[in-house]
Amino acid sequence: MYQNPDGVMIGLEVHVQLNKLKTKVFCGCSTDYHNDPPNSHVCPVCLGLPGSLPVINKKAVESAIKIGLALNCTVEEHTQFYRKNYYYPDLPKGFQITQYDFPISSGGYIMIEGEDGEHRVGITRAHMEEDPGRLVHEGTIDKSKYTLIDYNRSGMALIEIVSDPDMRSPKEARRYLDKLRNILEYLDIFDGDLEGALRVDANISIMGGQRAEIKNISSHKGAERALLFEIVRQKNVLRRGGVVVQETRHFDEAREITLSMRSKEEAHDYRYFPEPDLVPLKISGWAPAIKATLPELPDARRMRFVEQYSIADDHAKALTSELKVAIFYEEVAKKAHPKTAAVWICDVLKGELNYRDLTIEAFKKEHMLSVIELLVSKKITEDGAVDIIRTLLDKGGSPIEIVKEKGLMKVEGDIVSMAAEEAIKENPAAVADFKAGKEKALNSLVGVVMKKTKGRADARAVREILLGKLG
Amino acid sequence: MITKKDLEHIGWLSRLELSEEDREKYTPRLNSVLDYFGELDKADTEGVEPLYHVMPMSNVFREDVPAASLSQEEALSNAPKNQNGFIKAPRMM
Amino acid sequence: MASINELKERIHADSSVEIVTEYLEIIEKSKLNAFITVAKESALLRAKEIDSNGHEGPLAGIPIAIKDNISTKGIKTTCASKILTGYIPPYDAHVIEKLKNAGAIIIGKANMDEFAMGSSTETSFYGPTLNPWDTTRVPGGSSGGSAAAVAGSEAPLSLGSDTGGSVRCPASFCGVVGLKPTYGVISRYGLISYANSLEQIGPFATSVRDVTTLFDVIAGQDPRDSTSVNREANYSSALINDVKGLKIGVPEEYFGEGTDKNVDRSVRDAINTLEELGATSIEVKMPNTKYALSAYYVIAMSEASSNLARFDGMRYGLRTEDSDWHTTFSRVRAAGFGEEVKRRILLGTYALSAGYHDKYYLKALKIRTLIKQDFERAFKDVDVLIAPTMPYPAFKLGEKIDDPISLYLADVDTVPINLAGVPSISLPCGFSGRLPIGMQVIGKHFDEAAILRTAYTFEENTDFHTRQPEG
Predict the structure, then answer these.
(1) pLDDT band at A267 (very low <50, low <70, confident <90, very high)
(2) What is the full DSSP assignment across C338-393?
(3) Predicted-assembly ipTM surpassing the 0.90 threshold
(4) Does the beta carbon of B12 lie under 8 angstroms from any beta carbon of chain C?
(5) Taking CB atoms and an 8 Å cutoff, what residues of chain B touch C231?
């Protein structure tokens, strides 16, 4: 049971941009603006021109329901949009169309790997709203002489996912974000790699005090760093005899600090009221139909892997934590030994990819199948397999070529036998030690044999042979 | 009733800069209108639901199909200040 | 004052260019100040086009004045406010597209109360419009320019907008016909919002027939307005000179204390005329009428405070010298909005603000339900309601402008109709000296047919609509 010594309570508000929709949430502007000049994907509606009116994108509603279901929420039968009134240069109408009462879904949860095992994080609500535009400052926000505004992003469909303050450490916050993003990728409703696809606001308090809201976090690592900084900052405030105030702070990604944003803003009075230009939605019956079309989600897939492929839960968890890895694994496991595939993808390949900052797309599944085949038919050693994988990632080629080039074919039994006998003859001290009960002396003999066979023998087999010869 | 202090706050919420003189002038005017709004209290609305939309409509959508956007030129055509395709606004702080 | 049919004959015989030129000359010489912008070049250009394309379309070659809160592509649109100085919309309102398709020619943008807030056209940044019947008096508002243009023979047709009476009031004061349709029948796409749950665009003309022809052109569902309804109707087919069996309801609450004697008499005489033609009348009770005015103003001001939040001088309109964003924003708005607009924004913000929301905004919406129920109950027993449009004929310029509440009280007979969303047409039914008096014929939701028929029959059997202002 995690003690949570500082009484840390963290809640996260994640904004997911439905950038796989073809159009924005309230107008027909196309969503593929990322490589285009500023203010080139706008219309009277998303530019907030006088006289313009919003119309709801049906697919955005369907996506919102998908997300609600995937987060185990209750999907409402009656939902509507509200105006949130405030002023900011990125908000063209002077209000944001969002949801307040009757959000489209609420009351869910997701399971994350917590500080002390599986931990449940509640989801307060997941609702629909529109994205504001994008501000560009000359330098940092507090020093810039002017503000530049690009409305291409204005009007993109957002789903705001608000968690209960159930996370107890920055690490848990990061795990929550990883899991959430994983689930969203499985749903195939957003491309997480595009700029602005996922934005995080964090709320954190310690020791039951007031919470600080941190804005402008744009990565999972950033969230963890921001929260780590906050805990230190808040503890320092308390240590100096002060009181932590409830405020909004801006995360400076470059300096990894949070800055107070207290200006004349004070407490916001958003004066919410239902959006008169949009009529309510009555969507009972939509959720069951959409539920039937949901793809298999990470937790379900993980359980299925364990059952279907008889692999360890740890492996299943690691394999399903990224959709593309899960798909890769299954394609391999269908043709090759599933357990071996699990071990070699999880324990070896993933590590090598991470080390090189690569994704699973850098490796071909045919190559994995080759490597497994060579291993299972005992044509190469485990070390040899690792070598092949590293070489494929660093230089390319194919497993068969690399085996030939590097002469990785496993050495025959006779040669090993001979090398073992030589080793025994040449190392009487080690042999004596071993016979005297020092098990570890065997290792040095194995080492000698491996040297003699230039590492191409199978270490376990060498051990066996030595044991056999030593009696 | 609104005081001049309240008016400072409401002016800020409305983003309308009000000088001392303005607040002096507006407060009694606004209060006489609010006074008139006192009529509302006389109505018995026990158990009555608010009418947000006068027509009982629901579920008006559009399909996820792209439509023509404005050109960048049209989008910027009315902005008094712009730079490299961006709309230029005063600094934040 | 030519009718559409007469003009069409003249256009065929002569040309649209000639007709347009004539109207332009009248406008040029006029002292009424009915127009903010006269679209001289584009009107003549369009007239030439129409002439060469063979006069196709129900309104081919006919000039029309458009209230300056309706977006016209390429033509300055100001809402009679300083804050929109120089704003040229890059798009046409839905009704403008329809007018253009029908061959109509936009001759200019008509003067109005600033942002449609007023009942006299005295709050316009461009000065008041004068009543053609007596130029020391107001034409009514907020669509004063639209009504005066038609009454003053400066345009045969015009469009206005009606939020709390802004079409019907000037129609009554200027002795012309003005229609406010059922909420949702005419698309609001392109209408610069004042109070979006209450307003509709409405046609003006010198006869019920012409108003109906214009109405036929601009009505109909628009996928860009989520509140627009799908009612296929040919309103012109309702113009039958027959009211036998028509049941008229007379709501005594609309003949209240402040009603001018001449108005009272004229409207009751009109009802008698219809009874002589075969209708019957009964008194109906609409007990919640006394709360309508305050409920209307709370709702309208609340919505306005939000609808006008977008006017910031960044993307269009007035811009003052820069300070920081929030301060500049506040200064632009203080400098750009007139007093009445500022007052309504402040009151609307107040009515929506935390602590007052329930007392004002929510309460007003509950009263709205009661008002709608009053109408539903009344229409169980009758087909139409007849009442005065305004409690008095046109008042003198400057008489009420310093007493906002007395101006608000002028709307006592018009606002309940907007709260309930029912249709109403105002047409001349008498005179007070030489000042026109208007009556409204009010119908059930979507029963424009009944009110048009009633109005048409009245008009066919009387001659009030044939009188013209002198000079």
Answers:
(1) low
(2) -HHHHHHHHHHHHHHSTTTTIIIIIHHHHHHHHHHHHHHHHHHH-SEEEEESSSSS
(3) yes
(4) yes
(5) none
A133-141 average pLDDT score: 82
Any A CB within 8 A of C366 CB: no
Mean pLDDT, to the nearest integer, of C156-163?
Answer: 98
Q: What per-residue confidence (pLDDT) applies to A264? A: 44
Instruction: For domain A413-470, give its CATH number from 2.120.10, 3.40.50, 1.20.120, 1.10.10.
Output: 1.10.10
Mutate to test the interface with C, among B21, B40, B46 (most CBs of C within 10 A): B40
pLDDT exceeds cutoff 50 at C406: yes
**What pLDDT is recorded for position A262?**
65
Name the band, by pLDDT with cuts 50, 70 and 90, for residue A114.
very high
Which residues from C are below 8 Å from B38, CB to CB? 294
- CATH for B1-43, among 3.30.720.10, 3.30.930.10, 3.40.440.10, 1.10.20.60? 1.10.20.60
Q: Which domain range does residue C463 map to?
A: 1-471
Domain boundaries, chain B: 1-43
Confidence of residue B44 (pLDDT cuts 50, 70, 90): very high
- Which residues in chain A have their CB less than 8 angstroms from residue B53's CB? 274, 276, 279-280
| Sheet with B86-90, side-by-side order of all strands | A134-137, A146-150, B86-90, B82-83
CATH no. for residue C155? 3.90.1300.10
Domain limits, CATH 1.10.10, in chain A: 413-470
Tally of structural domains, chain C: 1
List, in sequence order, every residue forming a beta bridge with C436; answer none if it has no partner: C431
Separation of alpha carbons C361 and C355, rounded Å: 11
- Strand C384-388 relative to strand C435-442, pairing: antiparallel
- C-alpha C190/C-alpha C69 separation (Å) is 8
Q: What is the pLDDT of residues C267-278, one digit of tens each?
A: 999 999 999 999
